[in-house]
């Protein structure tokens, strides 16, 4: 059976490192928000430190993977997620009811990728202001708190949805573990990408 490479080693490593960092941030973000959880597993200071340092490292895997010769597929996919055809916008608008030939990622997956990229930037910048607040005016600190909370909540919801989709779409999930998908799966779920691969 023919198998197509969907994610190379760099992409899979970035995905799982990102998942680890996001998991740690959500895990430590909950007691930071609901102060009453402090001390259940770690004392407050440890949780703040883990959250801060994990947060500061959050952009690293993506940035490192995009720079340098190892990042060809990462750069290709970043470009892919930024390009939206009219048909893809209609697919998203109709929540997938409109039948189209799909790219390597369907519009829902592209939107998820773009949201996570934006969340990393917004949470990093607002987290930086929260930590080094004395260098910023009061209005910035207030804005950073509201922004950080709002995006943290959105990340929680989107990540929960992402995990649900991964667990209910076995072949897509396995491709993030082993790298490949069957040609049959790709013909159904990513026809445009199969055509693109066979043309190169
Ligand atoms: C998945 C990503 C993240 C989630 C879910 C998250 C969640 C949270 C939550 C819920 C709080 C509590 C806010 C409050 O008390 O109202 C918080 C605080 C904070 N976060 Fe994040 N955050 C994330 C990413 C980041 C990043 C990237 C940084 C990087 C600098 C960061 C730095 C901070 C700092 C410094 C605080 C204040 C901690 C304190 O009370 O001393 N966070 N975060």
Q: Quaternary arrangement of the chains shown?
A: single chain
Mean pLDDT value: 95
The sequence of SSEs as H and E is EHHHHHHHHEHH
Adjacency order of strands in the biggest sheet: 1-2
CATH topology name, in short, is: Fumarate Reductase Cytochrome B subunit
Strand content: under 5%
CATH architectural designation: Up-down Bundle
Word description of this protein:
The chain has helices at 9-33, 44-57, 60-66, 72-82, 86-93, 107-131, 138-168, 170-178, 183-189, 191-199; strands at 3-5, 180-182. Helix 6 (107-131) packs antiparallel against helix 7 (138-168) and helix 9 crosses helix 10. The chain has one domain (3-199): Up-down Bundle (Fumarate Reductase Cytochrome B subunit). The longest helix is centred in the C-terminal third of the chain and has 31 residues, at 138-168. By secondary structure, it is mostly helical. It has a two-stranded antiparallel ribbon.
